[in-house]
Write a structure and sequence with these properties.
The protein is an alpha/beta fold and 306 residues long. It has ten helices and 14 strands. It comes from Allochromatium warmingii (Chromatium warmingii).
Length: 306
């Protein structure tokens, strides 16, 4: 596979504060890499460094083998960047804005009209070229921000919180668009939402306090039907295994259990069985995914119920 981005020992200081320390990153063509972390973990700083908006205090960034610091113009020709708040001009029409962005990207004059039409088509903006940006919904503004990022057909797309503020339908549509764009590019996106990273990424890098705590492929195995149960009083785990919906049970404490349900049963069946057994049910919650458990383990957060 083609290596599109390589960052080596990447660090950034703001005065005495270390925002990013010794980050190693590699992105291949066709990959969607998710930067995951709590607010303040260093995600946006990392993306700004990779897009050339910030200079690293130490380390090296290569875009298709081109040093981003030493040859910024050559490297940035292969980059498309969507910040958390797209750089839009509300008084312009969609076509005017994209034409202006194409000129900033130094596209040949004869190629601008086709580039604008292609970007609009890929981002679902075909019918909106004459609309004022001020009249667009949040979802369509995000689409427009993505359209400006892909005008020049970059090999690398960098997206900062691309689904922030979108409703569920808009989020699903944007996820599909990101996967489509990844067919002939590499994409790095940041998010603090674990389900979002799992839905669209095939690799995840977890940042905490400016350091990489995990860089691994996301497991795509079928999720199991596991639930966490807390009862009002201690109970032997063998008693739970006798309940009809329960395939397996494991004690996590005197009154807390992890339960895997039989195929074809659901949490309602389990709750009903517990109540019929006259057990005091205090909590019934889905078991966290492997990525979620890993995330909280790595950042040292206390386990939260619910």
């Amino acid at each position: 596979m083609d290596t599109l981005v390589r960052a080596t020992a990447l660090s950034r200081q703001f005065g005495q504060h270390s925002a990013l320390s010794d980050v190693e990153l590699c992105l291949e063509r066709g990959q969607v890499l998710g930067l995951l972390g709590a607010n303040g973990a260093g995600k946006t700083t990392c993306l700004r460094l990779l897009s050339g908006l910030l200079a690293p205090t130490a380390g090296r960034i290569e875009i298709l083998g081109i040093d981003l610091v030493r040859q910024p113009l050559a490297a940035k020709r292969h980059l498309g960047y969507l910040p958390e708040r797209p750089p839009l001009y509300p008084e312009l029409r969609v076509d005017e804005y994209l034409t202006y962005c194409a000129r900033l990207q130094r596209l040949p004059r004869r190629a601008i009209a086709e580039a604008v039409a292609t970007a609009k088509q890929r981002c679902g903006l075909d019918e909106h070229g004459r609309r004022l940006i001020a009249t667009l919904s949040r979802g369509y503004r995000q689409r427009l921000g993505l359209a400006q990022a892909i005008l020049h057909r970059p090999a690398v797309l960098i997206l900062d919180e691309p689904t922030e503020g979108l409703d569920p339908v808009q989020m699903r549509e944007l996820r599909g668009l990101i996967r489509e764009l990844a067919q002939d590019a590499g994409i790095i996106l940041s998010s603090h939402l674990l389900p979002e990273v799992q839905a669209v990424c095939d690799r995840v890098m977890i940042l905490h306090q400016g350091r990489v705590r995990l860089d691994a492929a996301i497991q795509t195995s079928r999720p199991t039907n596991r639930w966490r149960v807390q009862l009002g009083e201690p109970l032997a785990v063998e008693a739970l295994k006798l309940l009809a919906p329960v395939a397996e049970a494991q004690a996590l404490g005197s009154n807390r259990f992890q339960i895997e349900l039989c195929e074809g049963t659901n949490s309602a069946d389990l709750a009903r069985a517990l109540l019929l057994a006259e057990l005091d049910l205090c909590e019934l919650a889905p078991e966290r995914s492997d990525l979620e458990r890993t995330f909280f383990d790595l950042i040292g957060a206390e386990e939260q119920h619910g």
